[in-house]
Write a structure and sequence with these properties.
Rossmann fold
C-alpha cells in the first residue's frame, strides 16, 4: 500500500469524526509519528510503499481516534511554546491559552531583571515550569502536583528539554504551608464546574484526567482560594500571583482576590475571553 492510499483511506474512515480543517493536521501528525516523515517529506514520499507494520500502526491509531482518544495521547507528544512535550492520559494536553499565561509571567520576570524564585502549582506535564525555566535560566523554578504519575512525566520532560526545575508531590488543598518563599506563584488549576462536563467533547471528558479539569459546582473557586491563602504566606515582598481562569470567572476572581487583600489585574486571551489574572498583596 502506498502512503497516499493509506492517507485517503484514513480520511474516508475518519471523516465522520472530524471536520476536514481538523482532520488534515491530525493525519499529518499521525503520518509523521508512524513514518518519521515531516509534512514536506510526506508530499515527496506520497507514492512510496509503506510496510505492513506501518499499516497496522495506522489502523490501530484510527481505531483509537474513532474512540475519541486525542492524537496527542496516541503519539505521546504535543508542542508547547515551540518545544515537544511527552504527554499521556495522566496529564492534561497543554492549551494555547496557557502559553499566553507563561508569556505574561516571563514578561514580568524579565522586567524585574533578577533571579526570581518561581513556583508552579498543579504542574501536570511540567510545561509551565519548564517553559519559564527555558526562557529565564537564571530563575529558580519549583513545581507541585498531587499526582505522582504527573510528576514522573514532568521529570521526563525536564530531562528531555534540559530544564532545571525542582518537582514536589503535594496536595495543595490539604497543606498549610508551601516548601519555600517565592517571588512568583503561577497556577493553571482545575476550574471547570462539574455541570459543564455534559456539554464538553468526549475526547476531553473520557480521556484527559478529570482531576486536573473539574471542580465542584458549589465551590468552583476552591483551588484559587487555597492557593491565594498560601500565597499570602509565601510570596516575597512585592511578589506576584498569576492564574489561568475559566472564561466566565473573571468578576468572581477579582472579587475573591479583593476580599483576600490582593490587588488584581484581569487579562483576556487571543479570543477576547477573560483568561488570566495577575495579583499582588495590597499594602497594609
Amino acid at each position: 500500500m502506498l502512503l497516499n492510499d493509506i492517507k485517503q483511506a484514513l480520511k474516508k474512515q475518519l471523516a465522520g469524526q472530524f471536520e476536514s480543517v481538523e482532520l488534515n493536521p491530525i493525519l499529518s501528525i499521525l503520518i509523521e509519528h508512524v513514518t518519521g516523515w515531516d509534512q514536506v517529506q510526506q508530499v515527496i514520499h506520497k507514492d512510496n510503499a509503506i510496510s505492513e507494520e506501518q499499516v497496522l500502526a495506522f489502523e490501530t491509531a484510527a481505531t483509537a481516534l474513532l474512540a475519541g482518544r486525542p492524537i496527542q495521547y496516541i503519539t505521546g507528544k504535543t508542542w508547547f511554546m515551540g518545544e515537544p512535550y511527552i504527554v499521556n492520559d495522566q496529564v492534561l494536553i497543554p492549551r494555547p491559552e496557557t502559553e499566553e499565561l507563561v508569556d505574561w509571567v516571563i514578561e514580568y520576570a524579565a522586567i524585574k531583571g533578577k533571579a526570581l524564585r518561581i513556583l508552579d502549582i498543579g504542574t501536570g506535564s511540567g510545561c509551565i515550569a519548564i517553559a519559564i525555566n527555558k526562557a529565564l535560566p537564571e530563575a529558580i523554578v519549583s513545581a507541585i502536583d498531587i499526582s505522582t504519575s504527573a510528576i514522573k512525566i514532568a521529570a521526563a520532560n525536564a530531562t528531555a528539554l534540559k530544564a532545571d526545575i525542582e518537582l514536589i508531590a503535594l496536595d495543595i488543598l490539604n497543606t498549610a504551608f508551601l516548601p519555600g518563599q517565592y517571588d512568583v506563584i503561577v497556577s493553571n488549576p482545575p476550574y471547570i464546574p462539574m455541570q459543564e462536563m455534559k456539554n464538553m467533547e468526549l475526547q476531553v471528558t473520557d480521556h484527559e484526567p478529570n482531576i486536573a479539569l473539574f471542580v465542584p459546582d458549589e465551590d468552583p473557586l476552591v483551588f484559587y482560594k487555597a492557593i491565594t491563602r498560601l500565597a499570602k504566606l509565601h510570596l516575597s515582598a512585592n511578589g506576584q500571583l498569576f492564574f489561568e481562569i475559566h472564561y466566565d470567572q473573571g468578576d468572581a476572581m477579582i472579587a475573591l482576590l479583593d476580599e483576600m487583600h490582593f490587588h488584581a489585574e484581569l487579562r483576556t486571551d487571543l479570543f477576547g475571553k477573560d483568561r488570566m489574572v495577575r495579583a499582588s498583596l495590597k499594602p497594609r
